[in-house]
Write a structure and sequence with these properties.
About 20% of the residues lie in helices and about 25% in strands. It has a five-stranded antiparallel beta sheet, with helices on one face. The protein is globular. Helix 1 runs antiparallel to helix 2. It has one domain. It is of the alpha+beta class and about 100 residues long. The chain contains two helices and five strands, in the order E-E-E-E-H-H-E.
Length: about 100
Amino acid sequence: MPYQTSINVKRINIMKTKSKILNPRNRIYTESSSATTFINYSQSQEILEVKIKTTGEVYHYFNVPEDVWEEYKNEIRLEKSSGKFYNKKIKPFYEYDEIDE
């Protein structure tokens, strides 16, 4: 699986991009999480969108496979920690960019 071995993750752009947010109708709100506000995914682009609760920042993570997205959704449905999954299986392994919401 792509997230088992850590890679040197880099931010794509230093400045916030003008990239559009993903379709808000597809968001999964993570009310019980102290780390994230919502997550979202574009299957066609393999982009995971995450809004951080404490800062309000929105990030796009690139080349995230659908099976990772499905696992993330399942963790949230089972009321497990969104932040723990994000910090262990997303943040260290996928290139990202901060976007304007």
